[in-house]
Amino acid sequence: MTLPGAVPPQEDNPDQGVAWHYGDPFGEQRAAARTVAVVDRSNREVIAVPGDDRLSWLHLMISQHVSELPENTGTEALVLDSQGRVDAHMVLAHRDGTVWMDTEPGAHATGARGDQQSLLEYLEAMKFWSKVEPRDATAEIAVLSLIGPEAVPALEAVGLNAPTDTYGVDGMVRRMPGSTFDLLVPRAELATWWSRLTEAGARPMGSWGYEALRVEALRPRLGMDTDEKTIPHEVNWVPSAAHVAKGCYRGQETVSKVHNIGRPPRRMLLLHLDGSADSLPSTGDPVNAGERTVGRVGTVVQHHELGPIALALIKRSVGPETPLTAGGVSAAIDPDSIPPDTPGLGREAVKRLHS
């Protein structure tokens, strides 16, 4: 959707088709932190899963416990490969007899023969005799996100109710962690709802601002903060997107074993980058401790208060005070981003999982 004042993203930006910013990316972030901002995220793909068996079938397909997911609730979930590595991440909303799943553009999954399929192709191949009809609903539904401490009054001003529980769903509104609400609006009405929200006081914010706040909140993004070896525990997707107790889904053995008897070999941490450097690292660049590569750079952003920061997957053995470089730029670990250890036997148990 092309909106007044929108600055398009650069060619290598993953959020093509939506605004990068609206002329003042730091002001947009401040509005989201202090009042309310609205973000066009209509580039996300949407898959609809109707049918009598939708919950029992999805329960077998994805990492989250959804066999009894009530109407008007949602959750996050993953599709894993047979080794427990993350293929796809999605956010669910169960309403009107359908599970709506929004996911990254170009989402894919590993097929039964090891080939890469689109996420929809993978789901269709796994229907068998189940009473489900997954379909591409991207042309039907678009995602807007409303962020900030004044998001609830903004929703009320346009006649929408704010769910009280995280992942609660009320009509087109789904509450997310923090002060964020996703609106799953009819795509044909996207411009109308954008206008209504901005007229209600929400400041337009581009993907730059959304990503900066996401990085600050330590929320990973598939393909940016993950690589082909990432397991859910490394990026804090347990338990928000992966259930450790339920069985009978692909990759479940790894999820359960790492949770119960091991620790993930890497952990996603926040890095503070040297703001005086001529350039910033790029996603996928190595993180080094001296001459030794100890990690991978994920999302890199300019934050309105923290300056240049990045998420990175770092080996567990690296201490918080270790001097690092990220893509050749000096970097320091934010100690507050270090997650508590999962009880277990240590990395040797996890090493066996990856062997």
UniProtKB/TrEMBL annotation:
InterPro entries: CAF17_C, GCVT_N, TrmE/GcvT-like, YgfZ/GCV_T_CS, YgfZ/GcvT
Gene3D superfamilies: Probable tRNA modification gtpase trme, domain 1 (3.30.1360.120)
Ranges of residues in domain CAF17 C-terminal: 266-333
Keywords for this protein: Transit peptide
Domain GCVT N-terminal: 28-158
The UniProt record lists the keyword Transferase: no
Residue segments, region Disordered: 326-355
Pfam families documented for this protein: Beta-barrel_CAF17_C (PF25455), GCV_T (PF01571)
Protein name: Folate-dependent protein for Fe/S cluster synthesis/repair in oxidative stress
Organism of this sequence: Kibdelosporangium persicum
